């Protein structure tokens, strides 16, 4: 059974030692979401009482309170980060994963010195996926989380083990806009940068960047029910991808990897296009579809109140914009059934001669996301050619937009340009070969999962009153009949053919 390891990067964690094992056993035994919510609420209150007994009700200095808290047995209660972590681990259990938990304060001292790091390393080496749970500090993850990342970066064996493993995050902030999303994004960027697969939460809470919980004081995290649902969704999401990666070990594609290159920003003479063609020639086993979207007049999204315009099968173009020369209208069916999507941009200081449809195209993919997440579980890898000093942050922008399509983020390939010369040109084909090998495994696992445990997803129009009203006009049964049954039939038929499996 694949294992998801959660790490809590909070100084206030309530569990350590044998208390960790007790917590994991309890999470495994919880039968439904209502029971989960009651459990975390009760344990959050236990932790709050620990704070009172440690000196808060007497008004003692926090340093004294903290020392007193560390004298408890560590077998009861949950801090706010552990509340979110517990919800996420329960979500992973629902997808068929085993779970483990490491409180980082047991391994890193207040001054950053490590202790018993061999035990921490052993826990990570046993994991098939990593769930990073942290409070927000000034819009970023805690220093404990930073110490963990530095620890991983300095150990080549850990780096090798985690490469290609899924990761996701749950964060806690003092208010609804308390830096939760920036924290999730920063740690996603760091972990994807070392080669992990970046994930957000699942579609039941609209597929954002991970679990986001509001807790302004001790014990308050358990009261944020929507935040807890985002954490549960994050656990389900990483659980599913961990299972898909495990399934990939026993199957392989018998046809070519289906790769779509979306060229969104390039010069008139096609600098980025030439580099894409070079990469395509450098590797075999790939069915490449290159869309030069930057050469077409992409019409701006009108932010329609009802999007997509109707319920229908995936192959049906369902955006209100029907301009004939609009590339999304012309190329809609070429967005379907991809294993890897490679958004391509050229980023230069001198913008003369640069053609870009990047932002308009990102806006227009709204109908694909809201059409029940057409790109579910598809790998995304930015290919950026960046002139030194351009400072456009294109790989970050691609990540933060396309993760919301319920996708899997891969480490980007970035070509660095100086005075018209691509400085690392010789390195790019080798990196590209690694990406293709990794994506063949991901695609095989995704397709096999469609045969064994099909993933039915629906867009949930949270925050869109008109869209929600329109959505209610169609019963769940009708939506599944029109969209989901069509998608599952098409995908399962493709999975059988591409894996050579008869069902």
What would you say this structure looks like, in words?
Helix content is 43%, strand content 16%. The protein is α/β, with parallel strands linked by helices and 503 residues long. It has 2 domains: 3-249, Flavodoxin domain (Rossmann fold), CATH 3.40.50; 257-499, Rossmann fold, CATH 3.40.50.360. Strand 7, helix 10 and strand 8 form a beta-alpha-beta unit. It is globular. The model has no long low-confidence stretch (mean pLDDT 92).
- Distance linking N and C termini: 23 Å
The stretches of 5 or more residues where confidence is low (pLDDT under 50) are none
CA-based gyration radius: 23 Å
Largest sheet: 9 strands, mixed
* Shape annotation: globular
Q: Classify the helix fraction into a percent range.
A: 40-55%
Number of DSSP helical runs: 17
Identify the CATH architecture of the largest domain.
3-Layer(aba) Sandwich
Indicate the structural class.
alpha/beta
Q: What would you give as the CATH superfamily of the largest domain?
A: Flavodoxin domain
So what's the CATH class of the largest domain?
A: Alpha Beta
Domain tally? 2
> How many strand units?
15
Examine the coordinates and then state which fold CATH places here, giving the name of the CATH topology of the largest domain. Rossmann fold
Strand content: 15-25%
Can you give the mean pLDDT? 92
């Amino acid at each position: 059974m694949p294992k998801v390891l959660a790490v809590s990067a909070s100084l206030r964690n309530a569990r350590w030692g044998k208390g960790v094992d007790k917590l994991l056993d309890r999470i495994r035994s919880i039968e439904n979401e209502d029971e989960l919510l009651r459990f975390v609420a009760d344990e959050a209150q236990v932790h709050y009482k620990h704070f009172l007994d440690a000196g808060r009700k007497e008004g003692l200095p926090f340093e004294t309170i903290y020392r007193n808290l560390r004298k408890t047995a560590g077998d009861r209660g949950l801090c706010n980060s552990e509340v979110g972590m517990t919800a996420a681990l329960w979500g992973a259990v629902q997808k068929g994963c085993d779970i483990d938990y490491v409180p980082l304060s047991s391994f890193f001292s207040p001054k950053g010195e490590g202790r018993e790091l061999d035990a921490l390393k052993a826990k990570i080496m046993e994991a098939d996926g990593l769930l990073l749970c942290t409070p927000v500090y000034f819009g970023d993850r805690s220093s404990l989380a930073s110490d963990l990342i530095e620890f991983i970066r300095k150990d080549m064996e850990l780096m090798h083990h985690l490469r290609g493993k899924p990761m996701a995050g749950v964060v806690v902030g003092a208010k609804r806009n308390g830096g939760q999303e920036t924290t999730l994004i920063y740690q996603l960027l760091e972990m994807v940068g070392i080669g992990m697969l970046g994930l957000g939460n699942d579609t039941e809470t609209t597929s954002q960047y991970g679990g986001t919980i509001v807790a302004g004081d001790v014990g308050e995290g358990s009261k944020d029910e929507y935040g807890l649902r985002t954490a549960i969704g994050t656990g389900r999401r990483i659980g599913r991808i961990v299972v898909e990666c495990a399934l990939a070990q026993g199957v392989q594609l018998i046809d070519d990897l289906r790769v779509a290159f979306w060229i969104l920003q390039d010069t008139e003479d096609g600098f980025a296009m030439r580099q894409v063609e070079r990469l395509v020639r450098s590797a075999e086993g790939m069915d490449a579809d290159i869309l030069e979207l930057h050469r077409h007049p992409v019409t701006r999204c009108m932010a329609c109140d009802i999007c997509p315009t109707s319920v229908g099968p995936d192959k049906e173009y369902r955006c209100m914009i029907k301009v004939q020369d609009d590339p999304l209208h012309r190329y809609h069916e070429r967005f379907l059934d991809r294993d890897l999507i490679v958004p391509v941009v050229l980023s230069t200081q001198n913008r003369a001669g640069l053609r870009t449809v990047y932002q308009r195209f990102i806006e227009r993919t709204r109908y694909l996301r809201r059409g029940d997440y057409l790109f579910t579980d598809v790998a995304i890898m930015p290919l950026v050619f960046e002139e030194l000093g351009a400072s456009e942050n294109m790989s970050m922008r691609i990540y933060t937009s396309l993760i919301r399509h319920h996708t899997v983020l891969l480490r980007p390939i970035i070509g660095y340009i100086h005075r018209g010369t691509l400085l690392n040109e010789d390195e790019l084909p080798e990196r590209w070969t690694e990406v293709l090998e990794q994506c063949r495994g991901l695609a095989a696992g995704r397709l096999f999962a469609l045969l064994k445990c099909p993933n039915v997803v629906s867009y949930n129009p949270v925050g869109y009153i008109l869209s929600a009203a329109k959505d209610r006009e169609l019963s769940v049964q009708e939506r599944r009949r029109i969209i989901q049954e069509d998608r599952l039939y098409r995908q399962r038929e493709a999975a059988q053919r591409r894996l050579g499996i008869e069902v």
